[in-house]
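Q: Given only this backbone (501 positions), what sequence would you predict?
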């Protein structure tokens, strides 16, 4: 049971996986109160933006009472101008939930029936077809939310699993009658940052899991390269005091503890220091963890926020503001992108280290016996470099790329939707890079047998070997990379990490 305004990230993760939400019943009274307050203001003849006026540059145009319903209907139809591929089902589920949670706060002036319709679609997994592109993340995510709203009035398209439905069929499956929109209801549905926020949250959840996988991959690489765990000593990190760094160092100590490979070269190893990609893992991953933690705080606040306009206060006033401007979401998404890019960048460097006999300790060139006849992991490292470069380009901030819209009425926008949208592609690239690193590190560990690594790292090795055999001579690499990537995306390796709170 969720109280609007108090959802938790774990509950939002569950929504993406298909878990419906139930709201504390008290929300209905709050919604009714705000709707009644709005109706009183209208009856008094007050000019209310988007309720009895035009929109954007047309805000000074008064609309006659008999045209108010048509105004809301026209708004949804005209703003359904999105383009591109449809958003994936988990993201659409989250958008529905976030919009319902926001309207249920009782500050938007909509009937309870609007919230109930959104919840019914979510309950029956009837998901509006929402094109991914067309929002600049200010005045809310207008175009994508208009496509969602089309289904609520019996128009547009939706999906239920593999079935494509028109709006009427979609509502019938959810046992919902098409909405006849009241004053402001179209505007309340279209205004808001729910699409940007859902995209950013999806990217956050993926990045959190990938960071844990990156710790496993880096620990495997440390053992494969016969690196030192001295740089993970807690006294080093306590002297700096960065919380993410401290946590990641602790996780790495737990991953490497008990490794026979590590113990085998504690004495007599002539190397003084490892390269930064091994030695500075806590500093890099820890900084990424801190970025993700900060983004999580921002996005959780936004997920619980009311971001449409105008808003109805507890005192019954109707105030026009700008909560729809998604700058906080854009900044959060941009920082998530930086974390994803850096996790991939240092992973690629570890892959390069493992494949270069000038850098690693006693491993054959490109991690294959009889190199020369065999090329081994040569081009797998090239693939990781290509994906790393791609993620660097994708990590360029979107929040600094404002363009004015609506005849300069909306003269600064956040680009939060684009900032969130690119995170899925970046996460897929990172999953592939980490998959390649795990392949390379496990191959390196084969050359240290019969010595064993630690219990969690041997579990990671065993999970990979169920799908991918050791590399003793050249074969097509792509199937191995795809298999490792699937394990990464399933969370197989992330589940092996104990990341302290």
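A: Predicted residues:
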């Amino acid at each position: 049971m969720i109280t609007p305004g108090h959802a938790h990230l774990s509950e939002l993760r569950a929504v993406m996986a298909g878990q419906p939400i139930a709201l504390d019943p008290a929300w209905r009274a709050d919604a009714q109160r705000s709707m009644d307050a709005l109706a009183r203001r209208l009856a008094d003849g007050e000019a209310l933006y988007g309720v009895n006026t035009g929109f954007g540059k047309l805000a000074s145009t008064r609309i006659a009472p008999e045209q108010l319903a048509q105004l809301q209907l026209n708004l949804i139809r005209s703003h359904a101008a999105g383009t591109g591929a449809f958003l994936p089902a988990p993201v659409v589920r989250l958008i529905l939930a976030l919009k319902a949670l926001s309207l249920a706060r009782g500050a938007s002036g909509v009937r309870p029936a609007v919230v109930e319709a959104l919840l019914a679609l979510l309950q029956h997994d009837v998901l509006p077809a929402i094109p991914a592109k067309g929002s600049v993340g200010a005045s809310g995510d207008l175009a994508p939310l208009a496509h969602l709203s089309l289904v609520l009035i019996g128009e547009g398209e939706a999906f239920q699993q593999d079935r494509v439905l028109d709006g009427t069929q979609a509502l019938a499956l959810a046992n919902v009658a098409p909405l006849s929109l009241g004053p402001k209801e179209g505007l309340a549905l279209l205004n808001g940052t729910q699409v940007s926020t859902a995209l950013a949250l999806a990217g956050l959840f993926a990045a959190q899991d990938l960071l844990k996988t990156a710790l496993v991959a880096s620990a495997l690489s440390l053992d494969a390269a016969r690196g030192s765990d001295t740089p993970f000593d807690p006294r080093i990190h306590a002297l700096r005091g960065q919380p993410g760094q401290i946590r990641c160092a602790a996780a790495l100590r737990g991953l490497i503890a008990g490794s026979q490979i590590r113990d085998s070269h504690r004495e007599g190893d002539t190397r003084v220091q490892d390269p930064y990609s091994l030695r500075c893992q806590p500093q890099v991953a820890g900084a990424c963890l801190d970025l993700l933690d900060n983004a999580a705080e921002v996005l959780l606040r936004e997920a619980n926020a009311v971001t449409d306009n105008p808003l109805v206060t507890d005192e019954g006033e109707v105030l026009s503001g700008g909560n729809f401007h998604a700058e906080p979401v854009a900044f959060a998404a941009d920082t998530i992108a930086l974390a994803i890019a850096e996790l991939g960048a240092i992973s690629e460097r570890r892959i390069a280290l493992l494949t270069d006999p000038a850098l690693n300790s006693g491993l054959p060139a490109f991690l294959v016996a009889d190199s020369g006849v065999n090329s081994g992991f040569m081009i797998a490292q090239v693939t990781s470099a290509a994906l790393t470069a791609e993620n660097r380009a994708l990590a360029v901030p979107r929040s600094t790329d404002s363009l004015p819209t609506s005849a300069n009425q909306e003269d600064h926008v956040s680009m939060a939707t684009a900032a969130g949208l690119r995170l899925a592609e970046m996460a897929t690239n990172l999953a592939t890079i980490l998959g390649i690193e795990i392949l390379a590190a496990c191959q390196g560990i084969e050359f240290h047998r019969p010595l064993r690594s630690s219990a969690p790292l041997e579990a990671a090795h065993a999970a990979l070997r169920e799908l991918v055999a050791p590399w003793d001579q050249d074969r097509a690499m792509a199937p191995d990379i795809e298999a490792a990537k699937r394990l990464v995306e399933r969370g197989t390796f992330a589940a092996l990490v104990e990341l302290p709170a």
